[in-house]
């Protein structure tokens, strides 16, 4: 199973002229945010696969109509596949992807650093996690696991995050991984000057992956395609 992840920039292999050949075996596309919405349509069209995304803390003007002002939480769609806006929004939701059987949850946004949209305090992000708990518990009863992948924009605290308020990670993501044990936590937000820099950090049962640009998760293989 090959999962193409993108975040923060279209200057990557995922948006090269050879995308169809490079990523021809892609089963699923995930975005960790801060991408132009048209890029999701491009990837979906070129690779003929679904795109699931969370919000970043930039490029939000197109999404204004969907944003709920209370705690910057986003209005729920009727179900995961009712409305498609270039891709499927999973911010604040948890779903089972029908084609692959993967359980995927999304928690977009960054640490609050000004009055902009899609920014959260630590307590607000904890509140968003609590809203996912009933679904996670149902997953555990039905599938034997809470989830497989958590898609975020910001990183966990202390795992490749920054020192300034904007780029600090969330402490509650560490607690989330402790309790719900996703196989992967994929995030963006932290830009990498060196595309060959290490991207993966093992935190207990979870691989934390900085997706910046593009990154291919290749299940049952040891390698990954970066770009």
Could you walk me through the main structural features you see in this protein, from its secondary elements to its overall organization?
The protein has 227 residues and is α/β, with parallel strands linked by helices. Helices cover 21% and strands 23% of the residues. It is built from four helices and 14 strands. The strands form three sheets. Strands 4-3-2-1-13-14 form a six-stranded mixed beta sheet, with helices on one face. Helix 3 (122-143) runs parallel beside helix 4. The two termini are 19 Å apart. The relative contact order is 0.18.
Set out the fold topology.
Blueprint: E1 2-7, H1 19-22, E2 28-31, H2 37-47, E3 51-53, E4 88-89, E5 94-96, E6 103-107, E7 110-111, E8 119-120, H3 122-143, E9 149-152, H4 171-180, E10 184-187, E11 200-203, E12 206-210, E13 213-218, E14 225-226
Parallel strand pairs: 1-2, 2-3, 3-4, 6-9, 7-8, 9-10, 10-12
Antiparallel strand pairs: 1-13, 5-6, 11-12, 13-14
Which properties best describe this structure?
227 residues, six-stranded mixed sheet, single chain, alpha/beta
**What's the alpha carbon Rg, rounded to whole Å?**
16 Å
How many strand segments?
A: 14
Category from helices, strands and their pairing: alpha/beta
Largest beta-sheet details: 6 strands, mixed
Could you list the spans in which at least 5 consecutive residues all have pLDDT below 50?
Answer: 68-82, 221-227
Report the average pLDDT across residues: 87
Biggest sheet: strand arrangement: 4-3-2-1-13-14
Content of β-strand: 15-25%
Q: End-to-end distance, in Å?
A: 19 Å
Kindly state the percentage of residues in helix: 10-25%
Tell me the overall shape.
globular
Q: Count every helix, treating DSSP H or I runs of 4 or more residues as helices.
A: 4
* Helix and strand sequence: EHEHEEEEEEHEHEEEEE
């Amino acid at each position: 199973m090959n999962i193409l992840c993108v975040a923060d920039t279209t200057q990557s292999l995922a948006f090269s002229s050879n995308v169809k050949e490079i990523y021809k075996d892609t089963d699923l596309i995930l975005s960790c945010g801060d991408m132009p919405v048209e890029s999701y349509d491009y990837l979906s069209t070129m690779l003929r696969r679904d795109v699931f995304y969370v919000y970043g803390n930039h490029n939000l003007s197109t999404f204004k109509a969907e944003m709920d002002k209370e705690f910057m939480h986003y209005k729920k769609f009727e179900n995961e596949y009712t409305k498609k806006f270039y891709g499927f929004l999973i911010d604040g939701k948890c779903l089972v992807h029908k084609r692959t059987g993967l359980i995927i949850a999304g928690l977009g946004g960054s640490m609050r650093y000004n009055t902009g949209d899609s920014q959260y305090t630590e307590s607000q992000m904890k509140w968003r996690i609590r809203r996912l708990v009933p679904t996670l518990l149902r997953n555990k009863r039905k599938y034997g696991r809470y989830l497989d992948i958590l898609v975020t924009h910001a990183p966990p605290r202390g795992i490749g995050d920054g020192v300034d308020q904007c780029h600090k990670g969330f402490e509650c993501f560490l607690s989330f991984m402790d309790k719900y044990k996703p196989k992967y936590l994929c995030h963006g937000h932290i830009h990498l000057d060196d595309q060959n820099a290490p991207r993966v950090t093992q935190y207990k049962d979870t691989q934390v992956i900085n997706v910046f640009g593009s990154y291919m998760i290749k299940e049952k293989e040891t390698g990954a395609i970066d770009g």
